[in-house]
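User: I've been trying to design a sequence by hand for this structure and keep getting stuck. Would you show me what you'd pick, starting by listing the structure so we're on the same page?

Assistant: Good idea, let's start from the same input. This is the structure you sent:
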């Protein structure tokens, strides 16, 4: 049901930031992925749960060796239904005993990352170093 996943930046104040700007942590942006999907094939809740299983939602200000607020775990929502779904998923994990650092924030302007950031692992022939699937739901 996922149609496209595009790497980029969101949440900051600089217009059209570049990776080198975001890397400084001074723009207020976060590295993000804009996911386009077909809701007739996959539900937002299923995507949210998958997101929470392919990274560490308990790590504060980073993911794996990538440390800094720009790498923190964040869910950007477009509407109240998405917000409530994200809150529900995080509550399920908390009730299971997980410590949760993931934040839920209204989506702001999304800026696509440079071409060399798109399909990063595929382009570089590397395995993901800060993402691994862990069944949590």
């Amino acid at each position: 049901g996922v149609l496209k996943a595009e790497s980029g930046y969101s949440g900051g104040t600089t217009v059209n930031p570049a990776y080198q700007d975001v890397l400084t942590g001074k723009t207020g942006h976060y590295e993000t992925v804009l996911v386009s999907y077909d809701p007739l094939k996959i539900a937002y809740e299923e995507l949210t749960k998958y997101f929470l299983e392919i990274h560490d939602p308990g790590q504060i200000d980073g993911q794996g060796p990538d440390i800094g607020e720009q790498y923190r775990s964040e869910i950007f929502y477009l509407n109240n239904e998405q917000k409530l779904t994200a809150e529900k998923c995080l509550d399920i994990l908390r009730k299971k005993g997980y410590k949760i650092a993931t934040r839920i924030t209204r989506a702001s302007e999304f800026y696509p990352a440079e071409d060399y950031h798109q399909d990063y692992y595929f382009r570089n022939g590397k395995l993901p170093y800060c993402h691994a699937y862990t069944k949590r739901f």
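That's my pick for every position. To get oriented when you compare it with your attempt: The mean pLDDT is 91. The two ends are 19 Å apart (CA to CA).
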